[in-house]
Write a structure and sequence with these properties.
By secondary structure, this protein is an all-alpha fold. The chain is built from 4 helices and no strands. Helices cover 62% and strands 0% of the residues. The two termini are 36 Å apart.
């Protein structure tokens, strides 16, 4: 009886936030961002160091030359991977940054689709899944920090 008097007045104050089955989507999104960012870094380094690897015909429209695309992929890849690592912390700022950089990466891949159509389409689809997972299920890990 004496022990019950030390309890809080509200039972929900002692409860920790429950993890639902959808919380795994945020972990998936974070890991996919790290993987996608790593692939972007590799893609950018290949464009920078091997000018003959990507073949661009005269009909293909690129806003930048391949060296510019290499730098863009390298920088965005590092930012995407770092935001994926931040997303693993469960912080709210990391969710916002993850959505911004995943969206930026999708747009970057859209510009590169004339050089690598299949790969760019796959990365765009993965970026859309990451944005969906973070936007729809991001609140479920809000209690973790």
């Amino acid at each position: 009886m004496a022990q019950e008097t030390h309890r809080t007045a509200h039972a929900w104050e002692d409860e920790r936030p429950r993890s639902s089955a959808w919380t795994g989507w945020i972990g998936f999104a974070a890991i996919m961002m790290i993987v996608i960012g790593s692939f972007n870094v590799i893609e950018g380094m290949v464009a920078l160091f091997d000018n003959e690897y990507y073949v661009v015909g005269p009909d293909n429209v690129l806003v930048l030359d391949l060296t510019g695309w290499g730098w863009a992929h390298l920088v965005v890849g590092v930012l995407v991977a770092l935001s994926g690592a931040g997303l693993l912390t469960g912080a709210a700022w990391a969710r916002v940054v993850a959505v911004v950089f995943a969206s930026l990466n999708a747009v970057l891949q859209l510009g590169f689709v004339s050089v690598q159509p299949v790969w760019s389409t796959i990365v765009i689809a993965l970026c859309v899944v990451v944005v969906w997972a973070v936007v729809v299920h991001g609140d479920e890990v809000g209690g973790r920090r």
